[in-house]
Amino acid sequence: MQTHQGETIQMAVKSVIGQNQTNFWGASYSFVAGNYAGGLLISKAIAVPAEAEAIPSADPRKTRMAGLPVCETEFINQGLQRYHVKTRTTKQAVTAFMGIITPHAKLLQQPLDLGDRQAHTLEYEAYVGEVGEQNTIDPAAQFLMSSLSALIADSRGFWQGVWQRSEVTVGGNDELNLAIHYNVFQLNQAAGRDGRTNIAAKGLSGSGYEGHYFWDTEMYMLPYFTYTNQPMARQLLYYRYQTLPKARARAREMGVNKGALFAWRTINGEEASAYFPAGTAQYHIDADVAYAVGKYYEITRDLDFILQCGFEMVLETAKFWENFGSWHQVGASSRFEFHTVTGPDEYTALVNNNYYTNRLAKHNFELVGYLANEIRQRYPNKLADFGIGPADLEKFQKLADHVYLPYSTDLQINEQDDSFLSKPRWPADKSTPENFPLLLHYHPLTIYRYQVAKQADTLLADYLFPEDLSIDQLKREYDYYEGVTTHDSSLSRSIFSILAARMGDPEKAYKYFMDTARMDLVNLQKNTADGLHLANLGGSWLALVAGFSGFYVQDEVVHFTNHLPQEITRLTYRMKIAASVLEIDLSVDKTSVTVISGPIPTYGVSVNGERISLVKSSSYEK
Questions:
Q1: ∠ CA 587-593-599 to the nearest 5 degrees?
Q2: Which residues form the Glycoside hydrolase family 65 central catalytic domain (predicted)?
Q3: What confidence score (pLDDT) does residue 48 get?
């Protein structure tokens, strides 16, 4: 810093946010005189930004300006301030305390003398309380619970654990390697850890989508935590369980008298979608949540979680599908169908038998039976607590067996829905760069008339269930749907990358991956100003792990297959399988799996199609 007279003062700032003590933030300010000698008065306050002007926009991805919160400030004493922040409309509130935690509170009363050229340091700490706690918090006691050094140790320990379990290194491209680390960092800092919060679509980086949570969490971001940080994955799933009462109420509002329907867009469990054809009608979120529960259990064997809340969520979503769907007699056979739904592709709304929705609902039914059997093996009489018996399980299995999955015998591919393939393709003269994303340039009803996809839909189901189809069918489906997909959604390219790698086309996989990894760095979706695309950040991790290393789990076997493109000289990453941390190391001619810590996994391990045995502290290489 420099005065008007050219005298200089050096200031060093160290700031840290508590990672386990999540209510605390701390900062230290150190001052050393350069050629300045004299007094220095230091004051610290929480900045309240000026009210931003609302700018009308037709872009549904942008926030609707609701006005900045109101901040009331109270100076409790010279070393302690209280800030009461509340929203303008709902009056939700939080109280924050900030004070000096070094023995220099007097510095707020008299100038600091910098004439001795010695370093002088002030340490501030802020504590954020919960609504209703402001009358019970003893701020001084709270400040004494921690210190800046303790917060630094807390933060350092947390992030060391993150990288110990989930380090990713990409060889051959330093900028790409840095981008992946940045993506993983953003995922970790944005994730709710208390069971009451989730992951906003823009994380902590912007106001787009107004902080709401979507199905993106379960399908794109939760996998990272499921395979690297199971306690955090459990908390993210527990958030959904906390909203289950409102999900039951939502199902009744939608005319379904049993089961639960999770909100497609929400914070507190209530549906916040402003446009129901592309929002509320995405009933598939029920099956997405169930799928995530199943994957969490598959890798953790956390039966306690299943008994406490996981099985109830899977059961309630299955009941929804049972009562939402309907039987349809076709010739001598009957099939179970789901009508007037919207799949992941928001450019195709309110259709019958969306393949993705039906396939996930089928899995939801099957998962009830699987988890019920897991419970029954340990606790033979426990299922009665959930109000189901053998007859109910037989009913769900029958439904699973008869869920209709549309298929084109002419093209020999799974159909996105009953009508998608019969529509005309989007006109070529409207497919110019200035017309994308389509949602900003055409009325939804115009888009709905055409065979055009915003993002991976049927192909997303193909990714989730690799056992469903042969490589030949996957190639046919990939080629077809690639030709009608605009990738106007940030969720799309990572799935196309993963499937291209799985098909043996690493160059196409790399192209889509680079778009995924650099999306916000180059503003590919043209709306990074509203915040990062958090689901895409999860997708970049999936593209590396599920794509280039071919990772998936099936029937208690962990599979790795080397699909590394020539542009990446080496890929090394870590993941947590049950209590074991594995390191997977791939180069063009080598694939190795090493047990870094924990016991030898009880899961089977397959590398490049060959079952192997792992030994602790040594690796398998092929």
A1: 160
A2: 182-541
A3: 61
Q: What is the pTM of this model?
A: 0.91
Strands 9-17 and 112-113: unpaired
Burial tier of 473 (Cβ tally within 10 Å: 0-12, 13-18, 19+): middle
DSSP 559: E
Residue 582 has pLDDT above 90, yes or no: yes
Radius of gyration of the chain (CA): 27
DSSP state of 426: P
- Bridge partner list, 117: none
**E strands, 364-507, where?**
407-408, 413-414
pLDDT, residue 47, reads: 67
pLDDT value at 191 more than 60: yes
pLDDT in tens, 519-538: 888 888 888 888 999 999 99
**76-94 pLDDT tens trace:** 776 778 888 888 777 878 8
- Beta-carbon contacts of residue 280 (< 8 Å; ≥ 6 apart): 254, 264, 271, 273
Which are the catalytic amino acids? Answer: 346
Contacts of 247 (CB under 8 A, 6+ apart): 260, 261, 262, 263, 269, 316
- Rounded distance, CA 447 to CA 543, Å? 29
